[in-house]
Amino acid sequence: LPETTSQEELLALIDKLNADKTVHGILVQLPLPRQIDPDTVLAAIRPEKDVDGFHPVNIGRLVAGLPASEPCTPKGILRLLKSTGIPLAGKEAVVIGRSNIVGKPVALMLLAESATVTICHSKTADLAEHARRADILVAAIGKPRFVTADMVKEDAVVIDVGINRLEEGLVGDVDYEPVAEKASWITPVPGGVGPMTIAMLLENTLEQAEKTGASGR
Fold this sequence. Notes:
- By secondary structure, the chain is an alpha/beta fold.
- It folds into two domains: 7-70, Rossmann fold (3-Layer(aba) Sandwich); 72-194, 3-Layer(aba) Sandwich (Rossmann fold).
- Helix content is 37%, strand content 12%.
- It has a five-stranded parallel β-sheet.
- α4 (72-83) crosses α5 (103-112) and α4 crosses α8.
């Protein structure tokens, strides 16, 4: 769709896709042009076709601990953490960033795994001190190399969600090389969380197709 697409045109397309039984997943790429309200658009998607996990119904189910289409990036983060074999229960988890896309849902998902979760943001007093307590540190703040080695506990697991474009290329929210010397596990940028987000989107779409009895063809 062109950038000049109106909200009414986009909502009409979503209605059409909602009614199409051959469509099992709908994703609206954010951010949207300024003439379109993202909350209105995301709420227009049928919850069972919301493969991004952003519909208010799916977020509510996530809060309540009920089965839901989980947001792709947080789901990928949890999959990465579990792949380390480190138990999450009882661990101190610090999430830097409180966005609806990553920060809030990943905090809820860590809480569901019985981690002790702290969310830090732009108004947090002494953010570095909170970060230094983390066994699991998730950086999703959108500031290049914000997390430095002096903010990271020895042997912490560090998940870098940030993608920042600088003259030298893409960098994350974590100062990778110095932090990697202290962390037991760390995700690179690019090539870390990003591919997992895509994989979880495909998984969510497949799961929705299977729920509706699709053959998978």
